[in-house]
Design goal:
Helices cover 43% and strands 13% of the residues. By secondary structure, the protein is an alpha/beta fold. The strands form two sheets. Strands 1-2-4-3-5-6 form a six-stranded mixed beta sheet, with helices on both faces. It starts with 10 loop residues before the first helix and ends with a helix.
Length: 559
């Protein structure tokens, strides 16, 4: 078992202390596992019904995360997945209830019903009016147990919101209780899990789930579901949950609903958002309007990977309760969603100016570069595999194919050719090489006149080298493509004004620079993770530069 714990027996108290440490509006009841609103008035001065909920720990952020104005007045936590004791519930009632009394919202488990029910009875004996609202929203048990015996799961959070808003509006206890019970009756939930969770005291997962299977219709206490079924795509899982829930709720055509897509503790936001997408699409495809929706981990089962859907049928009054102001550490906000997904078309790129006939010399040089990259694919793949992920050869071969596919007009002059190459390589080359080459070519294109002299090419090459360094943060000696490009740029400048001689010098310097990388300790890129193990291997990016520069020199010299 790997968990951040001190002593499993103290975990719940320490968790509550951490929450109180982080939340200015909350307080921790001394000697009891109770979180309550801070700064409540004295008993006789309290003017609204107190709303209290709770249960075993392990469901965080429930229930303590929903203590705050417009929601709960207090939450009682027992040991992990264990109902809190009667005295803790009674202490919570005494701490937050005034003359208007208290409503206890209880999930439908035997221990919770017994302990919260007895605490309510004891409070009544002390003169504190108390009512109990039981949430039994788990439709997975339909056909197995009668509705009154179903489990209470994540939809309980929505009942908290309705009851809390009713209390904040000043309604008397019987009316607050009636609204909470009606909300619970209008609610259906069902969950699915892709694995088990580990209770700290047990130290091992609650069940074993073979690869390719999932548990359908489970509760929130680490137990298995009502059925073990093959793992299915998210769309099919969502459809199954919705079909079961809608079959058991009192939904009528034209009636809006609220949706809660709840994570069970181990499901990442990416997957929850994907499931929310499927849930919204599924409800709308069935002709059901979704007035409010929330997505996130609202009531968990420790670190269980899985999720649940909760659907609450709404009328105008219940929607107003959901929309009423509320503030608590875990309350996710208004739940207002757009009527349809907003999709904005991207701004169109400006049309390229590729017109006219190709300059034969420029086209021949670019095709020579493409041929060199294709010929070097196997070698570059082997070099990159030795110190990286092995994709450079294939990526540059794709780039070569893209260069060959450029239209004739792209080779009309030097700046046009470099700009066209930048655009096509940006799209064709995967990984970091694409952005590096594209940035370098764009910077070089801006430095060139339409008919450049050798000195212009020198300035453009230096600008390209500088652009790569700025983009990636590399410097000569870091064992990157710059270790071939930088000495090539210096050699080109030093050999001017003879352009052919300058290009030959640059090609030789690039080859020497690439070879030198075998003795360099990498400081950037994936190779840097290898440290000294990269020594003896030429950097693949630098070798690619040497290859295409040699081909470029040969193409220019042969004309």
């Amino acid at each position: 078992m790997r968990k951040f714990l001190n002593d499993p027996r103290a975990a719940v108290r320490e968790m509550l202390e951490g929450l109180a440490d982080l939340s200015p509006g909350l307080a921790l009841l001394a000697e009891e596992g109770v979180i309550l609103r801070a700064g409540l008035p004295a008993f006789g001065e309290r003017r609204e019904v107190a709303v209290i909920s709770g249960g075993g720990a392990g469901h965080e952020p429930a229930h303590a995360g929903y203590v705050g104005p417009g929601l709960l007045h207090a939450a009682v936590a027992g040991d992990v997945f264990t109902s809190p004791p009667v005295d803790a519930v009674l202490a919570a009632i005494r701490a937050v209830a005034g003359p208007p009394g208290a409503l206890l919202i209880v999930k439908n488990y035997t221990g919770d019903r017994l302990n919260f029910g007895l605490a309510a009875e004891l409070a009544r004996a002390e003169g504190i009016p108390c009512e109990v609202a039981v949430v039994a929203d788990d439709v997975a048990l339909a056909g197995t147990v009668e509705p009154a015996r179903r489990r209470g799961i994540a939809g309980t959070v929505l009942v908290h919101k309705v009851a809390g808003a009713a209390a904040a509006a000043g309604l008397p206890l019987d009316a607050v209780a009636a609204e909470a019970r009606a909300a619970a009756a209008a609610l259906g939930s069902m969950g699915v899990a892709l694995g088990a969770c580990t209770v700290p005291a047990a130290g091992r997962p609650g069940f074993d789930l073979p690869e390719g299977e999932m548990e359908l219709g489970l509760g929130i206490h680490g137990e298995a579901g009502v059925a073990r079924v093959p793992l299915a795509p998210a769309r099919e899982v969502a459809a199954t949950l919705l079909d079961r829930i809608l079959a058991e709720t009192r939904w009528q055509a034209g009636t809006p609903v609220a949706l809660l897509v709840n994570g069970l503790g181990g499901t990442p936001p990416m997957e929850l958002a994907l499931m929310a997408r499927e849930a919204l699409a599924g409800l709308r495809a069935r002709g059901i309007g979704v007035a409010r929706a929330w997505c996130g981990t609202a009531l968990s089962a420790l670190e269980m990977p899985g999720c649940s859907f909760s659907v609450m049928v709404l009328d105008a009054a219940r929607l107003a309760r959901l929309d009423a102001p509320a503030s608590a550490p875990a309350w996710p906000g208004s739940g207002v969603i757009p009527a349809a997904r907003a999709v904005v078309a991207p701004a169109e790129a400006p049309p390229h100016p590729w017109t006219g006939a190709a300059d034969p010399a420029i086209r021949a040089a670019v095709l020579a570069v493409a041929s060199a990259l294709e010929a070097a694919e196997a070698r570059l793949t082997a070099l990159d595999a030795a110190t990286g992920d092995g994709d450079l050869g294939l990526s540059l071969a794709r780039g070569a194919a893209a260069l060959r596919a450029l239209p004739e007009g792209a080779f009309a002059d030097a700046p046009a050719a470099l700009s066209a190459m930048a655009g096509t390589l940006r799209r064709a080359i995967a990984g970091s090489s694409g952005p590096f080459y594209a940035t370098a070519l764009l910077r070089a294109a801006r430095a060139l006149p339409a008919r450049p002299a050798p000195a212009d090419w020198a300035a453009a090459l230096e600008a390209a080298v500088a652009a790569i360094g700025e983009l990636g943060g590399a410097q000569p000696g870091d064992r990157t493509m710059l270790d071939a490009l930088h000495p090539a740029a210096l050699a080109f400048r030093d050999a001017l004004p003879d352009g052919r001689a300058a290009l030959s010098a640059a090609a030789r310097a690039a080859a020497a620079g690439a070879a030198a990388t075998a003795a360099m300790r990498p400081r950037l890129g994936r190779a840097s993770y290898l440290g000294d193990r990269a020594l003896g291997h030429t950097d693949a990016g630098a070798a690619a530069v040497a290859a295409w520069m040699a081909a470029l020199e040969e193409a220019v010299s042969s004309r």
